C-alpha cells in the first residue's frame, strides 16, 4: 500500500482541517421565551446575556397568562449562528423557563414596535413633519406651539426610517417599546 500523497501547501487532506467550520457571520434573531411570572426571573435571563457578553438589541416583557402566572419575554439579539444556538440552549436550562422559540428560524413571524417621537420646529419644518407623519401613518398625540409628539407603530425598520426623516426636522427625543413578535398562522 502506498502512502497518501499530499500536494505541498494543500490543506484539503490535512489533519488540522478536521474541526467543524464555524460561521463568523452576525445574524439577528428574535426569541420568544415563556417563563414563570415571579421575582428574579427577568434578572436571571438578563444575567445570562450580560455574564457571557451577549448583547440585547430589544427586550419586552409582559404577563400573558394571569391564571397560570406566566410571562413572555421577547428578546432580539445578534450573534453568530453558534452563539444564537448557545443562547437558546442556556435559556432552556434556566429553571423558570418553560419554552424558548426562535421566531427567526421557525417560519414567518410578525414584529411590531411602538415609538413616541418628540419633534420641535416651526414654520416649514413643522409642516414637513406633519406631512411625513401622515405618510408613515403616525399620529400626533400631543401638540404645542413649538413641538409635536408622534406615536408610530410598525416594524422596527419603519420606525428607524421615520426617525431618520425626523432628525433634520427637529427630533429631540424618542422612546421605543421594544419588539413584540409572534409567529404567523397555526
What this model shows, in words?
This protein has 186 residues and is of the alpha+beta class. The protein has four helices and nine strands. It folds into two domains: 27-102, 2-Layer Sandwich (Alpha-Beta Plaits), CATH 3.30.70; 109-183, Alpha-Beta Plaits. Helix content is 26%, strand content 38%. Strands 5, 6, 7, 8 and 9 form a five-stranded antiparallel sheet that branches. Strands 2-3-1-4 form a four-stranded antiparallel sheet, with helices on one face. Strand 6 and strand 7 (147-154) form a beta hairpin. The radius of gyration is 23 Å and the shape is elongated. Mean pLDDT is 90; it is low at 4-11.
Count of domains = 2
Helical content band: 25-40%
CATH architecture of the largest domain, by name, is: 2-Layer Sandwich
* Average pLDDT level: 90
Specify the number of helices. Answer: 4
**CATH homologous superfamily name of the largest domain?**
ACT domain
Task: Quote the distance from N terminus to C terminus.
Answer: 60 Å
CATH topology of the largest domain: Alpha-Beta Plaits
The fraction of residues assigned to DSSP E strands is: 35-45%
Radius of gyration: 23 Å
Quantity of strands, as a count: 9
Pfam families: ACT_AHAS_ss (PF22629), ALS_ss_C (PF10369)
Family: Belongs to the acetolactate synthase small subunit family.
InterPro entries: Acetalactate_synth_ssu, Acetolactate_synth/TF_NikR_C, Acetolactate_synth_ssu_C, ACT-like_dom_sf, ACT_dom, AHAS_ACT, AHAS_small-like_ACT
EC number: 2.2.1.6
